[in-house]
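Section 5: illustrative case.
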């Protein structure tokens, strides 16, 4: 809403200060969230459209605040990024997820989200190596998800880091594909193992010809690069049927399984008949 009078402006300023206060308090609380064991990881299955089997699971960070309850990563990841906390939190996620995934059947992969802020120097590859060594997780089971925003700054340096990561034998996925307002030029600088089509395109796919055209184009693009394509946020049978018909390799979404605690996921993964 537009501020029309002095009172409105004062209210606006008050709201902004409230927000800044809230952010500052959350930042302070996030600083101790790790040591107070308030952070945990849920895992969401990613399923093969052909076999219907779980191929890998994506690690999604959760913050259980003692009084505020569950806080969404959409809210606290940006705070972690702007405060520099993302480095230690990101490290914790990587090490914890690798350790938990090492307990799964060996044909199930693990996907971990990386913030652009974790691309600082060459410490990242060393850290990934350490996480793999300490957990005894085979490198080919690990997939790191990045967004195209890492190509907006230090593009050449980041491509070098990506290549270094790939040399470890892990895979690199491009997350939220098509939502980042950048050109497609970066696709010729690095060869991704996987493209993940953002939920915003999947959502309208069955009703909007434009969305369907975009989904089709992304699948074609992925195939021509030899990359696997995953559809995010599949919620309905109609979306699943449509995306399968279009030749998408993998699907993820509430229809196939919500993010879940590791104990629950493990029960599903080790069930005698896995579908
Ligand atoms: P993302 O990487 O795009 O993860 C997918 C998000 O979509 C997750 O939200 C997941 O719960 C949600 N989702 C999955 N299927 C469906 C569906 O069918 N419908 C709907 N409406 N949503 C679905 P979540 O867990 O809230 O995470 C939000 C974002 O926070 C992630 O988006 C990612 O950008 C960030 N994030 C989460 N964990 C981490 C982490 O460990 N590190 C970093 N850097 N970012 C993280
Ligand atoms: Ca992701
Ligand atoms: Ca995504
Ligand atoms: Ca997303």
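Designed sequence:
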């Amino acid at each position: 809403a537009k501020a029309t009078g002095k009172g409105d402006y004062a209210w606006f300023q008050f709201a902004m200060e409230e927000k800044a206060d809230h952010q500052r308090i959350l930042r302070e609380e996030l600083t101790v969230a790790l040591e107070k064991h308030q952070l945990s990881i849920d895992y969401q299955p990613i399923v093969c459209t052909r076999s219907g089997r779980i191929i890998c699971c994506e690690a999604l960070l959760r913050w259980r605040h003692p009084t505020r309850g569950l806080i969404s990563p959409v809210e606290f990841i940006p705070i972690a990024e702007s405060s520099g906390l993302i480095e230690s939190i990101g490290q914790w996620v990587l090490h914890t997820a690798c350790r938990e995934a090492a307990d799964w059947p060996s044909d199930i992969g693990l996907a971990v989200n990386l913030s652009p802020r974790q691309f600082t120097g060459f410490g990242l590859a060393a850290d990934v190596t350490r996480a793999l060594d300490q957990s005894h997780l085979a490198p080919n089971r690990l997939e790191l998800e990045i967004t195209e925003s890492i190509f907006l700054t230090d593009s050449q340096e980041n491509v070098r880091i990506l290549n270094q990561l790939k040399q470890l034998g892990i895979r690199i996925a491009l997350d939220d594909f098509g939502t980042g307002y950048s050109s497609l030029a970066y696709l010729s600088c690095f060869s991704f193992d996987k493209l993940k089509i953002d939920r915003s395109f999947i959502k309208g796919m069955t009703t909007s010809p434009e969305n369907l055209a975009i989904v089709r184009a992304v699948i074609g693009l992925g195939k021509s690069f030899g990359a696997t394509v995953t559809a995010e946020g599949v919620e309905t049978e109609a979306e699943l049927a449509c995306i399968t018909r279009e030749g998408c390799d993998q699907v993820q979404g509430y229809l196939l399984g919500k993010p879940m605690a590791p104990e629950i996921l493990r029960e599903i993964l080790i069930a005698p008949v896995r579908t």
